[in-house]
Specification:
Blueprint: H1 3-6, H2 23-31, E1 36-41, E2 46-49, H3 51-57, H4 69-72, H5 74-88, E3 93-100, E4 109-120, E5 123-133, H6 135-156, E6 161-166, E7 169-173, H7 175-180, H8 203-212, E8 218-223, E9 229-241, E10 244-253, H9 255-298, H10 304-336, E11 344-347, H11 348-362, E12 368-373, E13 377-380, H12 382-399, E14 406-413, E15 416-423, H13 454-464, E16 468-473, E17 479-486
Parallel strand pairs: 12-14
Antiparallel strand pairs: 1-2, 1-5, 3-4, 4-5, 6-7, 6-10, 8-9, 9-10, 11-13, 14-15, 15-17, 16-17
Helix pairs in contact: 9-10, 11-12, 12-13
Length: 492
């Protein structure tokens, strides 16, 4: 549209018009635009309306002239009001969406509106308004979105079969679904209720899902046509089908997965029973052997070869006991998802001191320091806490240099305690740090006391207490293992 043509006005207050010689051309131009067009004065009353807008309003063009918009289009006047105010302030408004009724007989319309201020001699004289009816395009886009949503729902469920139902009555199914249930074609399923296919003990669960409209996957057992039970995973969602809301259900055959899970559970149970028997049969004689060697080590008068032999037997017994303990703990973490704890009031340095003293007896040639600072009280499983400290100390002793001292430092802080085991002679390659706490990891450069599970179990103990365990470099050289434990573990 030519702004100079639209914005020319005749003399006289509040009168918006084109010069006489331009009227035929102006009318043809505005009517050929394919949009509803109106020229409004400063009081926002139409002074001219084209045939397209008159058709949208259901009134003759002359019936619009001089009437307030609230009277002409009461259901859209409120939505137009802020847009008109912007135009009156000198702003061009383009492609503003407006929804409402222009003509009662035509119903609600979806419109696009544009407004421009009209100037005369530099002063505001009114507003030029154009309206484009996009109702059909809007409705077609809605239909397309509905169809696309349905197709996306089908595509989202790359499944073994799917069907549609309305309040439990099967409306449609694909061939894969009917074959999964042992039927020759989907037509044999249509019109029947879902309860006909669901195993009795699962019918209440399915009814609950339907009543609540849940859209989360769940497992159910169905009955095939021949009576065979079939475990399925089911996922349902609402879609529009033939103009109404129905439920699209996708299913996956999980019979192979269930069989594998059952086999795995049986294998784990057998392993648990076997390890339980081994634990019961070996722990008692190993305990007797360790107590006996301790008694011999406390005797006076043993010659050096005898004392060396007793120490070797004690270390071998400890290694066997450690391997047995690690194997049982590893099995518990895998079967039960973690280690069971028995928390009790404890003081960290008292627990660690016993571990250090025992290691000093077994490694008299090594220098072991124990440092304590702050409040070290808390609720922990003391047996597991001693095991954590012993596993860390064992790893440092076996991986660090033999002439390097080892320091255990326990520090109390707000909310928890820290146990750090460090040695300047301990080095761990950067590429190996991420795998230090993996199970069955063999330590390089040393013969491990156990099965390579020490650090793995130490981390599991820290995690079971609600803490964490990490390895890091020390500023003064060497490496350290640092365990942080809250004073009150999970469940307190």
């Amino acid at each position: 549209m030519s702004q100079s043509l639209l914005h020319r006005y005749s003399e006289g207050p509040s009168t918006l018009a084109a010069p006489e010689e331009a009227r035929p051309f102006l009318g043809a131009l505005l009517s050929a635009a394919g949009c509803g067009v109106a020229l409004l004065d400063r009081e926002l009353r139409p002074v001219w309306v084209n045939a397209t807008l008159a058709a949208l309003s259901g009134l003759e063009p002359r019936a619009h002239v001089g009437r307030p918009l609230a009277e002409l289009w009461p259901q859209v006047a409120q939505a137009l009001s802020p847009l008109l105010a912007r135009a009156l302030s000198g702003e061009d408004v383009t492609d503003a969406p407006v929804r409402g009724v222009l003509a009662p007989a035509a119903g609600e319309r979806h419109l696009r509106v544009g407004l421009s201020p009209a100037l005369q001699g530099g002063a505001l004289a009114g507003v030029a308004l154009w309206v484009r009816d996009e109702t059909e395009r809007f409705l077609e886009e809605q239909r397309l979105r509905a169809r696309e949503s349905h197709m996306r729902s089908l595509a989202d469920v790359a499944c073994d079969g799917h069907f549609l139902h309305d309040n439990g009555i099967v409306m449609d199914a694909n061939r894969a679904m009917s074959q999964l249930l042992g039927y020759a074609s989907p037509s044999e399923m249509i019109g029947r209720h879902l309860a006909d296919y669901v195993a009795p003990e699962f019918r209440s669960q399915v009814g609950l899902v339907l009543s609540r409209g849940l859209e989360a996957p769940y497992e159910v057992v169905v009955l095939r046509r021949d009576g065979q039970r079939l475990p399925l995973e089911v996922l349902g969602r609402y879609v529009t089908w033939e103009g109404r809301q129905v439920r699209l259900v996708a299913v996956w055959d999980i019979s192979s997965r269930k069989a594998a899970e059952e086999l795995s559970a049986n294998t784990e149970q057998f392993r648990h029973q076997m390890l339980g028997a081994v634990d019961a049969e070996l722990r008692a004689p190993l305990q007797s052997l360790r107590e006996g060697t301790r008694s011999l080590q406390r005797l006076d008068g043993l010659e050096e070869p005898q004392r060396t032999l007793v120490s070797q037997v004690a270390r071998s017994a400890r290694r066997m006991e450690r391997m047995l303990q690690e194997l049982m703990d590893f099995t518990r973490t895998r079967l039960a998802g973690g280690l069971a704890l028995r928390p009790e009031p404890a003081v960290l340095d008292a627990v660690v001191a016993r571990v250090v003293e025992e290691r000093r007896r077994e490694h008299p040639e090594r220098t072991l320091h124990l440092e304590a600072e702050g409040d070290l009280r808390g609720h922990w499983d003391t047996h597991r806490l001693a095991q954590l400290a012993d596993n860390l100390l064992s790893s440092v002793l076996h991986q660090g240099a033999e002439d390097s001292p080892v320091t255990l430092r326990a520090v109390g802080a707000v909310g928890g305690v820290t146990l750090c085991v460090r040695s300047p002679g301990l080095t761990v390659a950067a590429e190996e740090r991420s795998s230090l706490f993996e199970p069955f990891r063999r330590e390089r450069g040393a013969t491990p006391e156990g099965l390579g599970l020490g650090l793995y179990i130490a981390r599991q103990i820290a995690v079971a207490h609600g803490g964490k365990l990490a390895v890091e470099s020390c500023s003064e050289g060497g490496m350290s293992f640092t365990a942080w434990l809250p004073r009150e573990g999970p469940g307190h």
